[in-house]
Amino acid sequence: MRKGTRGLMKTTRVIAWVLCAAPLAVAADRKRPQFGRQGFNPTADARDSRGWQPVSEQEWEKVRPWAELNCKNRLNFIDLMGDSAQKERAKRLIVNRYHQIQMLPYVELRQVVEKQVRVQDSIFGAQIALRFARRTNNHAEEEKAKADLRSAVQELYKVQVEDKKVRIKRLTAELDRLTNHPELAEQWYKNKLRQVDGGVPADAPGRRSTENASPDDSQPSPDGQ
Q1: What Å distances lie between residue 89 and 94, 99, 165, CA to CA?
Q2: What are phi and psi of 137, to 5 degrees?
Q3: In degrees, to the nearest 5, what angle opens at C-alpha 191 toward C-alphas 189 and 193?
Q4: What is the tens place of the pLDDT at every residue in 75-107?
Q5: Are 141 and 133 in contact (CB under 8 A)?
Q6: Helix, strand or coil, per DSSP, at residue 203
Q7: Where are the domains of the chain?
């Protein structure tokens, strides 16, 4: 094994926490996803870290092409880990992230969250490169990694601004519709009557909630989703 490869493998334990502590889960509920810092929900992250299930080969084959496009640095790092419980957990976090992004209720939000995934993966890759450059005393590579890290962080700042704009746009559209269509309250009332009279129960699996401050589930969302 070449010295460079051996050195990279030695960094695995040192920086494994970066992969495992990274916010690899997007929080999403059926109607109104609640996002925490940098677009991710710390509670959901903690839940994923406590209880995970190994990823089946079929599921991983489905998600891996998405991972290659959106989090290639994390994926490459996982490939270096060898067979281990830590590797399986890291794969599960990526798979969960993929599925949760697909659950987001409208296209524009999915797009901006995926952009965050890519930028955060660039940050992750720059951090790994910087650690390796410092361990090998490669000053040229260290400066390059620092420049890449700065660029990625600046891009993350821009994406965060874009993320807020998308959410404000969505909330503004919902507020305008609620303000200008008070008849929605009557529609919600009729839906509740249908539930009592043998309609779909409010807690039926797959049913979209009508309890939040959004249009009744008989109404389309602002972007048609």
Answers
A1: 9, 15, 33
A2: 55, 40
A3: 70
A4: 998 888 877 888 888 999 999 999 999 999 889
A5: yes
A6: coil
A7: 3-161, 181-225
